[in-house]
Amino acid sequence: MLSMEDVKHHYFFSETDAALLKELLPIARDNCDRIMDEFYEYLMRIPETAAFLREEKSMLRLKRSHAEWFINLFSGRYDQGYLHGLQHIGQAHVRCGLNAHYVNAAMNVIRRCLIELLQATFPVIEQRRKYRIAVEKILDINLDIMSSSYQEEELRKVFLSR
Ligand code: HEM
After folding, report:
1. How does pLDDT run across 27-46, given as a tens digit for each residue?
2. ipTM higher than threshold 0.90
């Protein structure tokens, strides 16, 4: 089992990246509602994901969870607790029967929103580059850890079926 230190090492994720992400926290907060609206618009457009978003009561709770995850990308703290949190998130999606494909596609929406936000905030490419690299790393790390929950579930099924 990999530790968060291993994961960060493999992605060349440094303390500088952590600090850069933390610097982005205020703009992430300011744009969270708009990006979450785009995220949910996207999820509602696809029948397979919209099916998970039918109940209005649980929608409020779910929207809060997704927004918290988004803000937490910029906490500046990426320790073992962060890794466990992402494993828990991955398992929640496996449990509710969501195909991993939709998590990957949804992450692409978040990535695009963040890249556009960086382009609007830092029009000069030399200024923007370091933030973009840090954002790409943390999104890839998130997807990596969440995807491993799906792989583990598949392995578990194979062993149980023997
Ligand atoms: C739960 C994040 C994609 C539907 C959650 C939770 C988080 C989260 C933080 C709360 C987990 C918990 O505390 O138990 C993400 C991220 C995604 C993503 C980072 C990709 C960027 C999706 C997609 C759908 C979806 C594509 C499709 C509709 C759900 C549902 C739950 C959930 C239904 C509740 C699961 C349960 O009943 O415990 N997600 N999510 N998520 N997410 Fe996502």
Report:
1. 999 999 999 999 999 999 99
2. yes
